[in-house]
Amino acid sequence: MLKETFVTGTATAQAFEPRYIRLDPNDNVAIVVNDLGLPAKSRFACGLELRTFVPQGHKVALSDIPEGEPIRRYNEVIGTAARPILAGEWVDEARIDMPTPPELDKLELATAVPTPQAPLEGYTFEGFRNPDGSVGTKNVLAISTSVQCVAGTLQFAIKRIKAELLPKYPNVDDVVGLTHNYGCGVAINAPLAIVPIRTLQNLALNPNFGGEVMVVGLGCEKLVPERLLPEGTDSSVVRMQDEAFDGFGAIVDAVLEMADARLAVLNARRRETCPASDLVIGLQCGGSDAFSGVTANPALGFAADLLVRAGAAVMFSEVTEVRDAIHLLTRRAANEDVGRALIREMDWYDGYLAKGDADRSANTTPGNKKGGLANIVEKSLGSIVKSGTSPIVDVLSPGERVRTKGMIFAATPASDFICGTLQLASGMTLQVFTTGRGTPYGLAAAPVIKVSTRTELARRWKDLIDFDAGRIATGEATIEETGWDLFRLILDVASGRTKVWSDRWGIHNDLTLFTPGPVT
Q: What pTM, to 2 d.p., does this model score?
């Protein structure tokens, strides 16, 4: 991945030397590495002199680029020159005209399927094995809700559960409410209602919850609580409108009584040695910058390949951050059916955005642009790197459960919170989240390892960032070395030996459903 970087001398000396990273010999732009950017007249070791100031992570032209000519990064066209660009100039967003996305009906399918790498044997973690054979990385009581109306009641009850019951059960990590804004005031029988409904159904089955499902409902909602229970489950619902309850206190007491019985079961769970093949890992990025595709995502991609070689299920997501690089992924599909499934999800999302008078360009945020990403094309090319080099073996529609091992595309929006919720529903038991700008994002239901793209961020947020991939950019470590370190950290976190910062602080984001169906 790192094809050319002018990095010399010690780390201290490097901080003052003009440095850039060029990812491919065919690229006509490179990104500036220096923390504070570089002023005009800065000269690189190759002799190139900057004509203007260029901020860190932003692109500098390596040669003259005439108006209308391609601008290349990752050896892919990220746009065309909106006007002539001279060598040494800052190639900012205003100088780039964005290209059209790849045409879905012209993509190659399964034409470059990677040869599976040798199995990686002997790697284990300490997990919680469930009766259905799945393995959790946490031991959590999750309480579902069938409608938003009861969210306040459940939150009140959970405060009491944590204060009065949880101390009796030291082997249980936490109690979480699967609250949401769905369940009533919606067209419950509309075709697209299947997305939030199956998401809620599958969330309750996440391996970190140990199979102990319970639901708090209201009683008049469209999404009846029984729809959220596994088939054959009974006596697992507290319905607030039940006439047997004499007041709010009695309702809360019923929730505590049901929770108490389930906590007793979960408290008997113990970690045991499990093969790495029992892991279900989610990959995500947020607050991305131009280093995402240079440091953190390549390191994560290498670690993802190691996980696949060890037999694990690994999923990457975010449709709009895949759409402009889809031509690189359909070739990697294990077969044409998988390739067509990738196209199906891209096509559906194109239509979904069009109905809202939007397109994939709406994805790129002000922070992305400040970090050097000019448009969604450049962002996508860096985003997909975290999927590694393994064949893509399956494609999940939003909220579907993982059904195979290997590298999987789980279709989700790019929203951090919706993507995290959908990956949990798919069975994710640990997430690795790369960030360039920084985010306090975390999930109560599963540990989230946050990986920084830049060492400066890791140092400044030393008590929020779990892993620094920025040392790749400075030449202090290779992608392979960093990928192995990240792989080992994943096993340690999955085993409970290392606690991620978001869990240490107890900062966790709410679950957010993807609800593309109509509201009545």
A: 0.95
